[in-house]
Amino acid sequence: MGISDYKAKKIMNRLTHSTKPTKEKQINRNWHLIDVSDKILGRIAPQIVRIVSGKNKTDYVPNLDIGDHVVVTNASKVRVTGKKTLSKEYTNYSGYPGGLKKINFADLIKKDSREIIKRAVSGMLPKNKFRSDRLNRIHVFPNAEHTFANKLIK
After folding, report:
1. What is the pLDDT of residues 71-82, one digit of tens each?
2. Pairwise CA distance, residues 132 & 30, whole Å
3. Are 34 and 69 in contact (CB under 8 A)?
4. What is the pTM of this model?
5. Domain layout of the chain by residue ranges
6. Which of 13, 38, 57, 113 could bond 75 through an S-S bridge, CB–CB 3.0 to 4.6 Å?
7. DSSP 20
8. C-alpha–C-alpha distance, residues 72 and 33, integer Å
9. Strands of 138-140's sheet, edge to edge?
10. Among residues 71, 70, 61, which one has the least CA distance to residue 130?
C-alpha cells in the first residue's frame, strides 16, 4: 500500500514551508576582533562589511539588520598597494565656494587613521536605512589596545 498522491503533496507542502522568518527579538549580535596591521585596505574592508551587515550568518534576511559588532585594531598600520599612499585623495566639501578640502592617504593616516577604515567600509555599505546603524557597530582603534576585551568571542 502506498501513499496517495494527495497525501504526498500535502506532506511536501508542509516540509517546504518549514523555514521560519527571523524576528527582531531573535537577533543575537556577536563581537569580532580584526587586526589590520600590514593588511591591504581593499581586502579587509569587504570582510568587515560582510560581518557588519550580517551576511556571514545563516539566518540573514535583507529586510532586517542582523549584523555583528566589529572591533578593528592597528588601523594606523593598514597598507594600500601601488602608489596610492601618495596619490589616493579623500575629499570633503562644505557646500560653500572654495570649501573643497583634499587630503591624501599618507597625511590622513598620520592625522586620524580611524577615518581611513570608516570611509572604506562606508563606501562599501549599501545606501539604505540600515547604513548608519551598521557604521555605529564598527569600533576602530589606531593601536592594539581597545576597550571591548570583555565582549569579544573567545
Report:
1. 999 999 999 999
2. 18
3. no
4. 0.84
5. 27-140
6. 113
7. P
8. 6
9. 31-35, 69-73, 138-140
10. 61
d(CA 78, CA 45): 11
CA 61 to chain centre: 15
pLDDT at 21: 76
User: What is the signed CA dihedral for 47, 52, 55, 61, rounded to 10 degrees?
Assistant: -170
User: Dihedral, CA atoms, 37, 38, 44, 48, nearest 10 degrees?
Assistant: 0
CATH of 27-140, one of 3.30.300.20, 3.90.1180.10, 3.40.190.10, 3.40.50.2300: 3.90.1180.10
Which residues are bridge partners to 139 per DSSP?
A: 71
Residue found under cell 589590520: 36
90-140 pLDDT, tens digit per residue, is 999 999 999 999 999 999 999 999 999 999 999 999 999 999 999 999 999
